[in-house]
Amino acid sequence: MDGDAPWRGLGETLLVTAVSAVLPGMAHLRAGRVRTGTALLLSYTLALSGAVLAADRLRPALVDAAVRPDRLAGLVVGCAALAALWTLLIVRSYAVLRPAGLAWSLRLVGGAAVAVVCALAALPPLTVAHYGTLQRDLLDRLFPGGGPAPAALPSVTPGRPVPRPAAPPAEEPSALPPRLDVLLIGADADVTRPGLRTDSMTVASIDTRTGRTLLLGLPRNLQHVPVWSGRRHVPFPPDELLNAVYALGRARPEVLADGAGRRVRDPGAELLKRTVGHILGRPVPYYAMIDMRSFRELVDAMGGVRVCLGRPVPVPREQIPRGVLPRGCRRLTGREALWYGRSRTGSDDYDRMARQKCLLWAIARQARPLPVLRGFQRLSRTVSRSVSTDLPRALLPDLVRLAARVRGAEVAVLQFVPPLVRTGDPDYRAIRRMTARAIAKSRNGTDNAAGLHMLGKSCA
C-alpha cells in the first residue's frame, strides 16, 4: 500500500491543479497559503461577476472592436497575455502542491499532465487571439483605411451644368448618412481574370435610421449605356452592354474624371459605380464586388442557405449531378446556391436576377454567428481573395449596427427589366423617375409604385 502513496499524492495534486485552472487559488488554499489563495480566488470571482453583469454592455463593445484594427490588436495582445498568465498560474499551482521526493517517472507523468491542463486552459484565449489576427488582416486587406469617406460624385442630367463635388470632410465620418447607397456587383470570371464580367448589378439603397432597404436591379444587357466619368460622358458603342463598362474602366482608367483612375483600387468598379449612379439619377458612393465562383465558399462557411423554389431550376449536370434543383423549400449548399443564382437554362436573365435578389435576402436574414465562426478561417481567406470594396474602414462600426436593423426591416425590389424597361433601347429619364418614386415609397414602407414589390412576398 505504501507503494501506492506517491501515486495517490500525485493524483490528488493533479486534481487540485486542474480545479485551480477553473477556480484560481484553490491549490494555494490546499497548500495552506491562505492569504495568496484567498486573493486569487476573490480577484477571479469579482472579475467574473463583473463580466457577467456587464455582458449586455460588453457585447456591443466586442462587436465594435471586431471592425477596428487597433482594438483588434489590443485584443490579440490581451488574449496572448491572458494565456501566458493562466499557464503560469497552473504551473505555480502544481508547484506549491507537488509532493517531495517523487521518482523521475512520476515527475515526468506529473509534468505531462500539467502541460495538458495548461494547453486546455490556454486554448480559448489563444483561439480568440488567432481569430482576432485573421480579422485584423482581413480588414487591412479588404477595406480602405485611415482617411475620410470619399465624396460622392454627382449624377447629372445631360445638358445641365455639372455641379462640383463637395469637398470631403476634414475628419473621419462618425455616422452614416440618412440614406446609404452601395452598388453590389456579382462578377463572373475565370480564375486568372477575376471580375471582368459583371453579370449581377444591384444598388442597395438603405434608410440608415430604419434599416428599410430598396434593391434596384440593373440587367447586364442594358444598351445605349451613358457611361459617366464623373464629369462627362465616355464614348461607348451603343450596342455594347452594361456589363462591359467594368472592362472599359480596367482597360482605360484615364477616362475617370479628376485623375481618379490613378487613385482608386479598381478603376473598372469605379467607372461602373459612377455610370450606375448616373443611370439612376442619384450618387452611388460605394461598391462591393464578389467573385461569384467563390460565392459558394461563403455560403458553405455560413452553413448553407434556405430558400423556397417556386418551380424547378435546371442546372448543369457537371455542377449538380441531378441536373435540377427541385421545387420546394430546402437548404442549399454553396454550389447549389451558386447555380440557383446563375442558371438561365429554361429561363432568362430577368428570372435569374429575381433569384439573385432572393439569395441576397435569404443570406442577410440567415447568417448566424456560430456557423460563420466555425468556418471563419476559410471564410476570411475566401473574402480577402474574392471580395473587393471601397467602403472605408471608418464606416464599419456604424455598418455593423446598421446590419442588425436591416435584418429585421422590409426589403423592397425594383428591377429595370421588360416590360418596365426595354433593355435594347432604355428610357433613362424614365428610369430616373422610377428610381426617385421607389425611394420615396420605400422610405414610407409602401410598395404601390410601378414594378416595386416587397422581397419577402416574392421569395417566400
Tertiary shape: elongated
Overall mean pLDDT score? 83
User: Could you say which structural class the secondary elements and strand pairing correspond to?
Assistant: alpha+beta
Helix content: 40-55%
Question: Strand-residue fraction?
Answer: 5-15%
Number of helices: 16
Return residue spans where pLDDT drops below 50 for at least 5 consecutive residues. 147-174, 190-195
Order of adjacent strands in the largest pleated sheet = 9-4-1-2-3-10-11
Write the element-wise H/E pattern from the N-terminal end onward: HHHHHHEEEHHEHEEEEHHHHEHEHEH
Through-space gap between termini: 73 Å
Biggest β-sheet strands, sense, barrel: 7 strands, mixed
Radius of gyration based on Cα positions: 29 Å
How would you describe the oligomerization state of the chains in this entry?
Answer: single chain
The total strand number stands at 11
How would you explain this protein's 3D organization?
By secondary structure, this protein is an alpha+beta fold. The chain is 50% helix and 12% strand. The chain has 16 helices and eleven strands. It has helices spanning 5-22, 26-30, 34-53, 55-65, 69-97, 104-142, 245-251, 267-280, 292-301, 334-342, 349-366, 369-374, 376-386, 396-407, 428-444, 455-459, and strands at 179-187, 198-207, 213-218, 286-291, 305-309, 313-314, 324-325, 328-332, 387-389, 411-415, 452-454. The protein starts with a helix and ends with a helix. Residues 147-174 and 190-195 have low confidence and may be disordered.
